[in-house]
What does this fold into?
Amino acid sequence: MIGTLAGLFSGLFGVGGGSVIVPLLVLWLAYDERSATATSLAAIVFIAAFAAATQGLYGNVRVLDAVLVGVPAIAGVLIGTRLQQRLQGRSIGLLFAAVLVGSAVELVVR
Amino acid sequence: MIGAIAIGLAAGIVAGLLGVGGGVLFVPGLVIFLGLGQHEAEATSLLAIVPVALVGTYRQDRYGNVRRRDALMLGVLSLVGAAGGVALANALSGAFLRDAFAVLMLIVAAQLVRRALQDEGAS
It folds into this structure.
């Protein structure tokens, strides 16, 4: 059930599906938060690879642009997983929440 | 281009913090800084997520946090849904997808805030 929902969500929005998987693992399967985020990341590898291949069939994938944002993101994920192990680091999440809200507004009004 | 690199870095940090793929920032970054359409941005985001999630999983596995069997099951079970989601996305207009995506971003932002506030309460 979680898998099917997450897959649909991932394919529809071009995201990994983690924003669906993590809360459902916590709510339905009583995962603690770290196990949920870690297990979610592992599942996303499969979901995103498959969905990207499917989008490739539609001719929508721009490989060079994917590299341009994907490579710096690898450095980012190393920082993020470290921060997550420390409680204090996570208040940085507030900063990223602000980035998200700002980008959402920019996306719609531009 | 610098904007795209910066948003890539930020996407990775969010991915590690929340256990998501980073697509929630890849997609708007690709649209705003590189001028991709919503459909192209979503497709390209999916490809960019793969290495990020791989590295994140590797790190989390070393911390002993990954439940491998559940992850494998989730991943395999989600494939049908993913194919359906891609087909649906390609059937919808870019403008509709974009607005729905903005709502999704606000939801993820709320998750980040809630988590930070929980920590505040715990410490």
Observations:
- The CA atoms of residues 75 and 123 of chain B lie 35 Å apart.
